[in-house]
Give the backbone structure.
Amino acid sequence: MPQKPPRICACGHRVANGIRCPCERKSDAERKARHDKNRKSSSARGYTGTWDKERKEFLKRHPRCKRCGGKADTVDHIIPHRGNSEIFWDRRNWAPLCTNCHSSAKQREERRSTKRT
Ligand SMILES: [Zn+2]
Ligand SMILES: [Zn+2]
């Protein structure tokens, strides 16, 4: 079978037939990365959108900070969810907190986790 002649890529490279030019491979990778990124950010958007809605409803029902009785504007996870969606969405694990109490709770939690490691 006669060999097909090499082709000239748009970038000016001579490329053996049936082979992707490095510039084409690069743009393939870029397209794929862009696609992955879009998919990731859209799923993240959906997640935060739902959380935002659920959080607001929870705060409507539990408007007082669990610790100081002030105005709650944050939903804290009593058990740190660490990315576990079951723990994350378990309402029994939610606590209404004001910003102050929430940030001090988070600091305490961070101290605890740095001690462990
Ligand atoms: Zn090329
Ligand atoms: Zn508070």
